[in-house]
Design goal:
heterodimer, A: alpha/beta, Elongation Factor Tu (Ef-tu), domain 3, B: about 475 residues, FAD/NAD(P)-binding domain, about 15% strand, binds flavin-adenine dinucleotide, binds iron/sulfur cluster, binds FE2/S2 (inorganic) cluster
Chain lengths: ~270, ~475
């Protein structure tokens, strides 16, 4: 059977967008939710955020950054191929309010992870700014798509080859300072763990409500294994059912980044094959 | 098949000793995943069957949660009439290849067997397995006689033993059945929890294939409560009734310091990685941490499976830590024996208080304390009490917690009008119907973590209750 890949395009040297037929996912899905996919019958179960969902067509877009064996395999899928499994939607939907000025901060493929929130925030009548980062120009993704749903988009690159030169957190600090007339009320962030941690540290002293979309290692995505557990405010929560979004000021990022290294040796062996 | 043989006298029967189950060599199996019990040979099975006294009021049947006609099938086997034995069994039990392997017979039927009063009870479990395996090998899973279609649609949520049994019964009653399963493979605990060496996955697959041949549709990767809500199944997808059998799969953690160190697993995660995701195979993309020393906490079947899997993945020692004594262990007695033969180390009357890590966030040991059994509680079970100043460390790199599971709130939270008890288990009436008309439930999500045979019993009983409900309702349940 399988789930058809209707379209496959490169967005960045390491990020691919797959348009996949999965009508059972689009029925109820919302921003913040994800699917778990397997490319092949012996593949790993990989969590991926639902980027765009077209309810009428029953399709979802996935944005995949090739960082290891399974994501590389997924990025090699061409139009007309198929995925062995697509399960979902999983996780809670983001609660979106009209807060006034909301900022989304995305790093790398994290930009795709929070694109749906940007759109939903706009639909709620917010003023939405997007700060999106990449190592250099080709790694900044979804800028055009975000421009269509945001009031302002600020691309950033580590090497200054495009947009603001520096980290997204520096640009965030600036934006907060500049926005005196329309103060920033909420920040939603997704990307590498050190980046999300840094975003939380920018907003913590200012008391700006900040939400991080966490990406722990998962297996089932239904609350059955507990492998995705994270510490939030001293409590053990399962990211796949209680999250994946949590109050960034409460998250134990150190533990999260540490737990993400559990299979590093195995991953290196897989990549070497 | 064969001409009637003269009946064997009781005195003759009494002379036969209980036959042993041939097992794979303990050293070999401590590092391989092949099935441990190899099954009885036909002559041996017949001999064992001849030990049965074919009691008029068979005690054993009273102990069987689904009242299998034990003397009935055993008598046919004793006569060497395997066809007839298989027919009797098939009428009582939908998945005998599975229950013959995983039922706690020593607590159900065999404990009550009259022959156990003096000597050993009849090996009912071995015989059930023998007849069921014979039937699977020699006549495949038989197609039921076609029945007139009822025109009614029934949705089954979850493909564990409860869901699979109900789906089969409902299909045989002429209903159109769809099973929704959250994972990518059907079987529930039978595929993600119970390891290959106790229950070969080929057997589960054969049972699932048989359902598909009966016309049951199995839709994996669909999470009820998220992909579709119960109300959407009733109102939009036009199912006339629903059977919820989503199990009790939420792992409980001990709540002690160090549980988030790398190397700490719930038994569900550890077993799922190995069984469902095949992490024991070096070619599998899914990893599992292979450690020299593993500690598994708990005393049930799950703990026993965990500690034996760890052993097979190379742990030496693979240690089981349990806070009560051996006699209180809820695991199947056969698994305890097998674990022991495979070299598993038992630390009884021991309770972990803290998991210790190194400076890189990896587990290095479990700090435990010794326990003693105190006064019996209301249920007569003696509860363990810590012995002061008895702390000691067990060095290990992996810890597997198998201390129990709870109801997963994912489905019930999205169905607010579904009544649950204080622990989150779904409440049902005498007909297994929930507080929502047309929505039934059974298996672990009703009972709390129980057994395969109870789940199968629930599946069968509920299928008939659903059939009666559908026949009684002039209008489909979805009419508004
Ligand atoms: C809820 C959720 C949503 C996600 N959405 C997306 C998405 O839309 N697009 C996308 O490209 N990725 C997403 N991810 C991350 C993605 O699932 C991982 O990148 C993927 O599982 C890695 O698999 P791999 O075999 O390719 O890499 P591996 O070989 O397993 O890992 C390679 C490296 O990545 C690190 N790593 C392992 N697992 C993760 C993880 N879960 N997150 C981050 N780093 C990890 C490892 O430490 C290792 O250094 C999401 C994760 C979660 C939990
Ligand atoms: C490791 C282990 C070993 C065991 N050993 C034994 C043994 O030896 N003997 C014995 O008798 N019992 C044993 N048990 C207990 C036995 O397996 C269970 O009591 C039995 O499987 C319960 O059956 P069930 O059909 O109610 O649920 P399960 O087998 O738990 O199946 C439920 C299914 O529903 C799916 N599901 C959950 N939520 C949803 C949803 N929202 N939408 C769609 N699908 C969903 C799950 O993925 C799962 O596949 C063991 C249990 C474990 C964990
Ligand atoms: S109680 Fe024992 S001897 Fe009697 S019918 Fe049952 S299995 Fe046979
Ligand atoms: S991924 Fe298994 S509980 Fe969250």
């Amino acid at each position: 059977m399988g789930y058809q890949v209707l379209e496959s395009v490169w967005l960045a040297p390491n990020v691919r967008k797959l348009l996949v037929a999965a009508p059972h996912v689009t029925r109820n899905c919302g921003p913040g939710q994800f699917v778990i996919v397997r490319a092949t019958p012996d593949g790993e179960r990989i969590p991926l955020t639902i980027g765009f969902a077209d309810k009428a067509a029953g399709t979802i877009s996935l944005f995949i950054q090739a960082i290891g064996k399974s994501t590389t395999d997924l990025c090699n899928l061409e139009t007309g191929s198929s995925l062995c499994d697509v399960a979902g939607p999983m996780g809670k939907k983001t609660t979106i309010h009209n807060v006034g000025h909301a900022v989304i901060v995305g790093g790398g493929v994290g930009t795709a992870v929070i694109y749906p929130q940007a759109r939903a925030l706009k639909e709620q009548g917010n003023y939405v700014s997007a700060i999106i980062g990449g190592r250099s120009k080709p790694y900044v993704i979804l800028e055009e798509e975000l421009k269509a749903v945001c009031d302002a988009v600020y691309p950033c690159t580590d090497d200054g080859s495009y947009g603001f030169k520096g980290f997204v957190t520096q640009r965030l600090g600036q934006l907060i300072t500049e926005s005196t007339a329309n103060p920033v009320k909420e920040v939603i962030t997704a990307g590498p763990v050190p980046m999300m941690k840094a975003v939380a540290e920018v907003t913590r002293p200012l008391g700006i409500h900040t939400v991080a979309s966490l990406n722990p290692i998962m297996v089932d995505g239904t609350g059955m294994c507990g492998g995705c557990r994270v510490q939030v405010g001293g409590q053990m929560l399962f990211a796949c059912v209680d999250g994946p979004e949590f109050d960034a000021h409460q998250v134990d990022f150190k533990e999260l980044s540490d737990r993400l290294t559990a299979y590093r040796e195995h991953e290196q062996r897989c990549m070497a094959k | 098949m064969s001409e009637a043989k003269p009946k064997i006298k009781a005195a003759e029967r009494m002379k036969i000793n209980r036959q042993a189950m041939p097992a794979r060599d303990a050293v070999e199996r401590s590092h391989t995943f092949g099935e441990v019990n190899l099954g009885l040979l036909e002559q041996i099975a017949i001999l064992e069957a001849q030990r049965c006294l074919e009691c008029k009021e068979a005690k054993c049947v009273a102990g069987c949660p689904v009242a299998v006609d034990i003397p009935g099938f055993v008598a046919k086997l004793a006569e060497g009439d395997l066809q007839a034995a298989a027919d009797v069994l098939a009428n009582c039990n939908a998945l005998p290849c599975i229950s013959g392997r995983v039922c706690p017979q020593e607590k159900q039927c065999e404990i009550l067997c009259i022959r156990g009063k003096k000597g050993d009870p009849v090996a009912i479990g071995y015989l059930e397995r023998f007849v069921a395996d014979w039937a699977l090998a020699h006549r495949g899973v038989r197609k039921a006689a076609p029945v007139p279609l009822s025109g009614k649609k029934v949705a089954v949520v979850g493909s564990g033993p409860a869901g699979l049994t109900a789906a089969g019964e409902l299909a045989k009653l002429g209903h159109e059945v769809t099973v929704f399963e959250a994972l990518h493979q059907p079987g529930g605990v039978l595929v993600y929890g119970i390891p290959e060496f106790r229950l070969p996955k080929e057997i589960v697959k054969a049972e699932v294939d048989a359902l598909v041949r009966l016309g049951v549709e199995i839709r994996c990767n669909v999470i009820i409560g998220r992909s579709y809500t119960i109300d959407q199944l009733l109102q939009e997808e036009r199912y006339d009734a629903i059977f919820i059998a989503n199990g009790a799969g939420l792992p409980v953690f001990m709540g002690i310091p160090g549980e988030n160190l790398k190397g700490v697993y719930s038994a569900n995660e550890y077993l799922t990685r190995v069984n469902l995701m095949k992490a024991f195979d070096p070619n599998s993309a899914t990893p599992v941490l292979k450690a020299k020393q593993v500690v598994v906490v708990g005393g049930g079947n799950t703990a026993m499976d965990g500690v034996r899997v760890a052993r097979r993945l190379g742990a030496d020692p693979s240690t089981l830590v349990y806070r009560r004594s051996r006699t209180e262990m809820p695991a199947r007695i056969e698994e305890v024996h097998h674990a022991e033969e495979e070299g598993v180390v038992f630390q009884m009357l021991t309770n972990p208080v803290k998991i210790l890590g190194d400076d890189k966030g990896w587990v290095r040991a479990v700090l435990c304390q010794r326990m003693e059994l105190g006064a019996p509680d209301a249920k007569g079970r003696r509860s363990p009490v810590p012995i002061p100043n008895s702390e000691f460390e067990i060095p290990c790199e992996v810890v597997v917690e198998a201390i129990g599971t709870r109801a997963n709130p994912l489905l019930t939270a999205t169905t607010p009008d579904l009544k649950v008890n204080e622990k989150g288990y779904i409440q049902i009436d005498a007909n297994n119907m929930t507080s929502k008309p047309g929505v039934f439930a059974g298996g672990d999500i009703v009972r709390g973590a129980a057994t395969v045979i109870l789940a199968m019993g629930d599946g069968k009983r509920t299928a008939h209750a659903i059939d009666a409900y559908l026949k009684a309702s002039v209008q489909p349940a979805t009419a508004n």
